[in-house]
Design goal:
This protein has 526 residues and is of the alpha/beta class. It folds into 2 domains: 34-289, Isochorismatase-like (Rossmann fold), CATH 3.40.50; 294-516, Class I glutamine amidotransferase (GATase) domain (Rossmann fold). It has helices at residues 3-23, 80-103, 122-129, 195-203, 218-221, 226-231, 257-271, 279-282, 308-320, 363-374, 405-410, 503-516; strands at 34-44, 52-62, 66-71, 74-76, 106-110, 175-178, 189-190, 207-212, 235-243, 275-276, 296-302, 326-331, 351-356, 361-362, 379-382, 399-400, 424-428, 447-448, 463-469, 476-484, 487-492. The longest helix has 24 residues, at 80-103. A 9-stranded mixed beta sheet has the order 12-11-13-15-21-20-19-17-18, with helices on both faces. The chain has a 6-stranded parallel beta sheet with strand order 7-5-3-8-9-10, sandwiched between helices. A two-stranded antiparallel ribbon has the order 1-2.
Length: 526
């Protein structure tokens, strides 16, 4: 090729490049990956009406403008129940974090008061590097209930919220490091302060997804959490299946722990922000706590003779909880023996366990008991349950009795008792030895304490299991089954405090609970 031809081609290429530059414009920069989220919130139908409707929507957030905040997922909480539920959530939470990180979201780990463990890590230094910014509303170390913008929380958490029995000590040492199940990677940030917001501002992040514990406390109140992020004008979502509450089911509104969490989530949906679930990131069904799927026994306790206020919670803890049964304990009000606050728990109960003596309930409370009994769900009664709601016509105005509860529901016929201080010898009723309730119960070493109740004859629809005898008196049934409205019913006139010291009695009662729930009783361990 001649020199002239080379020059000609170079000039032609140069001219083409100039012309192309005049007409070609660069396209838009590649956008970050989009997060597709299904939100739920509660909108007031009319201002100040107190009535809300649930509204769902599909939204898209740019992952580059989104932070995922993990609140207080400590390695160990002072409450063992809280630690257990945190451990249940952590694997799924890590899946969410990995998915969000891969899509381009910023992950901010916030184990409050645990910063010393991470002081030399690049994740901690990243959070510290963000320049401080001025805010219209100062970011506080803690933000309490905002009475101007929200109603009171729907749960009473003034006792600290431990749902364990017996309650855990707040003096138990905590491990304030974040659980290692949730991976921390370079590019993430670690903080427990306003640094989280400063980092968001530095990066142009306007969207925040909050998960962790506890919804009624830190998830609402910390400087990186819902209230304060909303104050700064951020778009905020709570991941409702990746959170828990500090709520004691023996406090108002006397609902199971998981229902207490649901109530706080509903509160947040009403007053603060919508919620989403982990499904949006993992494609898996919504995460639920194991206890939500466990049978739920409601103990109704109101008698002053046999100390079941102490013996039954202990029985539930030691005999039922290991077998996968959760319990709600409802005691009569200390100032009003006829009042049983918390009976709304019967709405979610799988079994009602009654230890009540001669109480006339407020009409609405007795209606709850009647509604439960009529639903066909199982019932167990011990000792004074045979005259639980019979005050012999003596009851305050606005209260009601159910005097036929014993013959109608329990299948009994209580009409008195033998002398106190005489133990009863016990034996299996005819043809009852193979009944599931008697399996593993050695009647040879089983005696009944307290007076022997006079209950014969039982209803024709009752099936006697155990017979008790004291000298010079006719034998009496002391344990039997019955059916009411297609429900399984068990009753025993045993239940004095010394009975609960007997392994045989505890086994009998445990068997009865599992039989009533139509589940196999746990194996006997030596």
């Amino acid at each position: 090729m001649s020199r002239i031809e080379v020059v000609r081609r170079l000039v032609l290429a140069f001219v083409i490049a100039i012309i192309a530059g005049l007409f070609w414009q660069p396209g838009p920069a590649t956008a970050g990956e989009m997060l597709e989220l299904k939100t739920r919130e509660r909108i007031e139908t009319e201002k100040a009406s107190g009535k809300f409707e649930t509204v769902s929507a599909n939204v898209k957030w740019d992952a580059d403008k989104t932070a995922v905040v993990i609140c207080d997922m400590w390695a160990r909480h002072w409450c063992r129940g809280a630690s257990q539920r945190g451990a249940e959530m952590a694997p799924r939470m890590n899946e969410v974090v990995m998915a969000a990180r891969n899509k381009g979201a910023l992950i901010i780990h916030c184990p409050s008061s645990g910063m010393e463990y991470y002081k030399d890590t690049p994740m901690r230094k990243l959070a510290q590097s963000a320049p401080k910014v001025e805010t219209k509303i100062p970011l506080q170390g803690w933000c309490s209930l905002d009475e101007a913008n929200e109603a009171a929380l729907p749960i009473d958490d003034r006792d600290g919220g431990c749902d364990c029995w017996p309650a855990c000590s707040t003096k138990t040492k905590m491990d304030l490091r974040q659980t290692t199940v949730i991976e921390m990677k370079e590019g993430d940030a670690i903080t427990d302060s306003a640094e989280a917001y400063y980092l968001m501002k530095q990066r142009g992040i306007t969207n925040v997804i909050v998960m962790g514990v506890h919804t009624n406390m830190c998830v609402l109140g910390r400087p990186f959490s819902i209230r304060q992020m909303k104050y700064q004008g951020q778009n905020v979502l709570l991941m409702r299946d990746m959170t828990d509450t500090m709520y004691n089911s023996r406090s108002k509104p006397y609902v199971p722990h998981v229902k207490g969490t649901d109530l706080v989530v509903e509160h947040i949906e009403k007053y603060w922000c919508p919620t989403i679930t982990s499904t949006d990131f993992t494609g898996k069904p919504v995460q639920t706590f194991a206890e939500a799927n466990r049978p739920h026994v409601v103990f109704m306790i109101g008698e002053r003779e046999y100390e079941t206020r102490d013996s039954l919670p202990k029985f539930a803890k030691e005999q039922l909880e290991p077998g996968g049964i959760r319990s709600t304990i409802i005691h009569a009000d200390a100032d009003d023996k006829n009042n049983f606050p918390g009976l709304l728990s019967l709405k979610t109960a799988d079994l009602l366990f009654v230890s009540v003596r001669r109480r006339s309930l407020p009409e609405d409370q007795l209606a709850l008991v009647r509604e439960y009994a009529g639903s066909g769900r199982p019932i167990i009664g011990i000792r004074t349950a045979s005259h639980a709601f019979d005050t012999k016509g003596k009851h305050p105005e606005g209260h009601a009795e159910w005097r036929s509860f014993d013959p109608e529901v329990l299948g009994g016929n209580y009409h008195g008792h033998r002398a106190n201080g005489v133990t009863s010898t016990l034996k299996a009723a005819k043809d009852a030895g193979k009944h599931p309730i008697l399996q593993g119960v050695s009647l040879d070493s089983f005696i009944g304490h307290g007076s022997l109740y006079q209950v014969a004859p039982l209803a024709k629809t009752a099936t006697s299991l155990v017979i008790g005898t004291i000298p010079e008196h006719p034998s009496e049934p002391v344990a039997w089954t019955h059916q009411y409205k297609n429900s399984r019913v068990f009753y025993t006139s045993l239940g004095q405090i010394d009975d609960f010291k007997s392994p045989e009695f505890n086994r009998l009662l445990t068997n009865a609970v599992f039989w009533a729930l139509n589940k196999p009783a746990p194996a006997i361990t030596q």
